[in-house]
Amino acid sequence: MCECPAGNREGTPVSQVHTVFGSITDYAKGTIELVSGEARHYVFSNIFEVAARSKPYERVVVGKNLEYVQEVMRADGVSPWFACGHDEFALCMDGEIAVDFIKLETPPSADKNGAVLAGEQPVGARMGYVKLRRGHQVMLGAGNAYRFTATRLGVLLQQTMLGDLSVQKWREICYS
Amino acid sequence: MPDTLTQVVASEPSNRNGYRSFKLGRFELSRDEYFVTVHWPAKGARRSHQMPADAFLRACMRDVAWNFFYGWVNFDHVIGTRNRYGKVDFYAGTFNGTLKEAGVDYLEQFDSELVMATFKAILRDWVNEGFDPFAAPVETGSAFGHKNGDNIAAIERTRIGTTRMPGLPGDSPLRDDMPVNRAFADVAQDEPEIHAEPGFEGELHAFSLFKYLSRSDVTWNPSVTAVCKASLACPTTEEYILPVFHGNDRVEWFIQLSDEIVWEVADKNTGAPRARVTMKAGDVAAMPADIRHQGYSTKRSMLYVWENVTPGLPQRYESGELPPYPVEF
Lengths: 176, 329
What we know:
The complex is a heterodimer. By secondary structure, chain A is mostly beta strands. Chain A has helices at 47-52, 170-173; strands at 31-34, 45-46, 59-65, 68-75, 82-84, 88-104, 115-117, 124-132, 136-140, 144-161, 166-167. Chain A has a single domain (39-173), classed as Jelly Rolls, CATH 2.60.120. Chain A is 6% helix and 44% strand. In chain A, strand 3 and strand 4 (68-75) form a beta hairpin. The longest helix of chain A has 6 residues, at 47-52. Chain A starts with 30 loop residues before the first strand and ends with a helix. Residues 1-12 of chain A have low confidence and may be disordered. Chain B has 2 domains: 2-155, no CATH class; 182-217 and 219-318, Jelly Rolls, CATH 2.60.120. Chain B is built from 7 helices and 19 strands. Helices cover 16% and strands 35% of the residues of chain B. The mean pLDDT of chain B is 96. In chain B, the strands form 2 sheets. In chain B, strands 6, 7, 8, 9, 12, 13, 14, 15, 16, 17, 18 and 19 form a 12-stranded antiparallel sheet that branches. Chain B is α+β, with helices and mostly antiparallel strands. In chain B, strand 7 and strand 8 form a beta hairpin. The chains are: A mainly beta, B alpha+beta. Strand 8 (124-132) of chain A pairs antiparallel with strand 10 (193-196) of chain B, so a sheet runs across the interface.
């Protein structure tokens, strides 16, 4: 990483700018220097490390705020069809990933929290697809089935709610 | 709110440095060429505290922009505000372990509108031409010196709310018309490809969050980019120092999207140091509900702040119904 200010309002060249994004094959995990308390209180993990050690499309919870969660998925090959009764949002943190959508004839109940499996051939109209690369965020609208296809190994961060498919393995992923 | 504005108590401009002084209840706030001074009564005496004018203005700007935020906004180790959601506490020393124990602290509660009007009046008077309290230090002029004009455009940026996701019809706009910040000149500007079947053109939506963030013209000022019921994604770009110590009235989560931030974490009530948390790209960490934190970012970085705005959370944490830590393991 460049150690010097990368340009200023007077017009200093910006060619040395280097923004560091991690990837599933190249990441560095931070640290906790304790004065008091315990490291586990910070529930500290790294999404690339989690993805590197997960099964394809395992929905590993890395953030939990009561019933709301952030899940990490290793985008590797083709995922099952998922669906959800509320909006979810996926952020591509690495790789290249296509997302197919189907307008479900029988969507999950709006009262049901978190994603569910939508079966091998969900019934409904094809809505189209979205192609994501690093930094792209897609809305996974309530009531639609969606399926990921990684054309290059990647990592997804998904904002959703704790559900039947959420996997919690805090001791394995966090500093303690 | 005309009724509230008329309650702002301000002096005439000083004939020495040109700045007005302000009163908020029994607090007195003034500035000179370099410093902001706050006076308050305690133990039968008039107490005082000073902080650099630039640091005060950056903190005050965040307090205004965030509408007093979630919990405590400590301007420094002595003064700050606590959001009571409709009311606001302004305090000196109340959340400093030493000053509190010595009994020289003071807290007064006000209607939020009065504090907001007073802070806005302070910013309008104390922010000089050329100084932008939202900007990184290398991107703005000096806050110091005699009264020299103003910078109303910088301090009254309109905050745009998001109801679902930016770029959707009727929702907040993307930032395609804003320039890429110098520190993110290498960030890819491509957008996702959206291939909608006929009839579904308006139902598929995606955008480049990293492009959006690379075009932010402010630092330490979250914008909502995804709403899942009461779960808000609030990413922001960070450079230099978070101008406040944010004291949490609920659990807050950080996801470091790029580069690195070091967080100083301290006890919420006393300010006693607890930890330094260094977060690198891809790191995820919780800020428990019983701490205050302040971040340092040398290279401008992208930080995903994740908030839960479920009503009643401050009371549930304060009563002990909810533990301060989000996960037991």
